[in-house]
Specification:
5-stranded antiparallel beta sheet, 3 helices, elongated
Length: 357
């Protein structure tokens, strides 16, 4: 079933970009603040450096602009930092990210992918030298300079939790110092060097940062219309308790009020039809007929059959891949239940309009 959503990206229409906004931690003064070498100035040649997490408080962010497009720092001097082996990423922090305590740092496998999350709840890689090659970061004194980012799934803030920016590198040249603050961001780092698993200290002296953000709508589910009656005049219902967020591998749909043991099929379209299409027996199709036909012919749908349990409940697991091409896509879903007691020999559920983000 995961393939169905993965292949829908073929039909996805491009979504126009929105205006970006800047978030400055703690201020928009890139020439102000003492200079510090952590994490960019601690590794020259084959020397070691301090893996670092810079915290960004949720109160500093704006729920209307949850997509983080770039992370910038402010150099004390001009130059170019070159890293042959760097891990640069961002993620939500867990409650364990507490001031004054040691925290677990993320670790990585031989491919540069996250092996353990440490104090992060999740982690989005912005640069992984194993996959993305060496990084070259040019900066101008006393000005914001965005870090390079490899093409990847964008990081979307969940609107609730603090986030952390992680940097670890080794075998780098062009080491330099950058402006820092004495308030926020708080930072954790380890003097044990590249590959350290636990921070050795922390302080409210993290590097000043600028986050470039843009609007990102929340995923949503809207129920449309009603199903048609079947056995014992029961009307089947299609529902979900989850949001269709990109990367939600556990996204599940439930058909209820079906006859015990009845087979269900799930159909989909891109969006819904502007008006219901009556097919008799009190049943209406709410899906867009043009894209419904396209998706059936492309073998994306139907999904199933899935058979109802004795209580008349059937579940469809529909993992949503972290594919940016699906962002903003509307997907209509409606289930068919085979019911010999119904006027048409089958019943239909209501439809769901999923907006993926």
């Amino acid at each position: 079933m995961k393939l169905a959503f993965a292949l829908l990206s073929v039909f996805a229409l491009s979504v126009s970009g929105s205006a970006q906004v800047e978030v400055h931690i703690p201020d928009n003064l890139p020439a102000v603040g003492t200079c510090n070498v952590i994490p960019f100035g601690q590794s020259t040649g084959t020397g070691f450096q301090y893996p670092t997490i810079n915290r960004v408080l949720a109160t500093s962010l704006n729920p209307a602009n949850r997509k983080i497009d770039a992370v910038s720092f402010a150099g004390c001097f001009s130059g170019t930092f070159s890293a042959t082996n760097i891990r640069f990423g961002i993620g939500h922090l867990t409650a364990a990210a507490t001031i004054g305590v040691q925290v677990a740092l993320p670790t990585f496998d031989l491919a540069g992918n996250v092996a353990t999350l440490g104090v992060f709840a999740d982690y989005t890689s912005l640069w992984n030298s194993v996959a993305d090659g060496p990084m070259s970061y040019s900066y101008t004194a006393n000005a914001w300079a965005p870090m390079p980012q490899a093409p990847a799934t964008p990081f979307i803030w969940n609107g609730v939790d603090n986030i952390g920016v992680f940097i670890a590198h080794i075998g780098s040249t062009g080491a330099n110092s950058f402006h820092r603050s004495s308030t926020e961001p708080y930072r954790w780092y380890s003097s044990a060097g590249f590959g350290a698993t636990v921070s050795t200290t922390g302080s409210a002296t993290g590097l000043k940062m600028r986050l470039t953000c843009s609007p990102h709508a929340l995923a949503s589910v809207t129920s449309v219309g009603v199903g048609c009656p079947g056995l014992n005049a029961m009307v089947p219902v299609l529902s979900t308790l989850q949001l269709p967020s990109l990367g939600n591998a556990a996204f599940t749909l439930t058909v209820s009020n079906a006859p015990g043991g009845a087979a269900s099929l799930l159909y989909g379209s891109l969006g819904l039809n502007p008006f219901p299409i009556s097919i008799g027996g009190g049943c209406s199709v709410y899906l867009d007929p043009v894209t419904l036909d396209l998706l059936i012919n492309a073998a994306f749908f139907p999904l199933g059959p899935v058979f109802a349990d004795p209580l008349g409940v059937a579940g469809f697991n529909l993992p949503i891949p972290p594919d940016p091409a699906l962002n903003g896509l509307h997907v209509g879903l409606q289930a068919v239940i085979f019911d010999a007691s119904a006027a048409l020999g089958l019943t239909l559920t209501n439809a769901l309009d999923l907006e993926l983000h």
